[in-house]
Amino acid sequence: MGYRRVSRLSFVWLAAVIALGAAPAHAAAPAAVELVEIFARVCLEKFPDDSAVRQFAAEKQLAVMPDDRLHRLLGTDPGEGWIHNTARGPYLLTIEMPPYHTCAIRKADSAAPDFLANLSEVLATWAAKQPSASLKQRPQQTAQVGGLPSQVYEWDLDRGPGKQAETLLAIVTNMTSRVEVRLARVIKVQ
Predict the structure, then answer these.
(1) Residue-averaged pLDDT of the chain
(2) Of these four, 39, 102, 138, 159, which has the most CB atoms within 10 Å of its CB?
(3) What is the value of pTM for the model shown?
(4) Rounded Cα–Cα distance for residues 1 and 171 (Å)
């Protein structure tokens, strides 16, 4: 009986080692997964239907963002905003109205999660499901966003002739003691 138990344990151990070895070398951290999942759930699945975004906010019981905070984020552009609290802290969800119709998720933390590979994969999967669409990633840029140094990652979604093009953005802004990650889907309304 003892030999069989050791053999079974050895088999289980060997199977676990093989399974771990087959796992991706760099799995996304929970913070990165949560950030991208919230963006996908709202900005890819619900947006540009503003009423669907509002319904999501109501169903999830998101707090309406105070006007002063919303204006700090959007400036003079019209829009709406909510605060989505999770165990990892608050996410800021905004909808900016035309001339740019934008859905954005913002998350500030002590460091930016390693989200880029996960986001790229989610965007590619989503774009492949869009009729007649093609997704192209642009080179990474460094820019001043709100006067602060930022890394900007950009994808263009071309939906074909006569359809509005979209831009998908990931902006990582270094603030004084925190880093803000903003994921956005932007549709230029003509």
Answers:
(1) 86
(2) 39
(3) 0.84
(4) 60
Strand partners, 81: 94
Closest listed residue to residue 184, CA positions, set 169, 173, 172: 169
Burial-class residue 58 by CB neighbours within 10 Å (0-12, 13-18, 19+): exposed
Q: Please report, for the chain, the start and end positions of each structural domain, with discontinuous segments joined by +.
A: 28-188
pLDDT band at 27 (very low <50, low <70, confident <90, very high): low
**Tokens 């109501």 correspond to what residue?**
58
Q: Give the tens place of pLDDT for each residue, 40-52.
A: 999 999 999 999 9
What is the C-alpha to C-alpha distance for residues 108 and 174, in angstroms, rounded to an integer?
A: 10
The token pair at 2 is 């003892």
Q: What is the pLDDT of residue 25?
A: 41
Q: At what angle do helices 30-39 and 116-128 cross, to 10 degrees?
A: 30
C-beta separation of 103 from 184 below 8 A:
yes
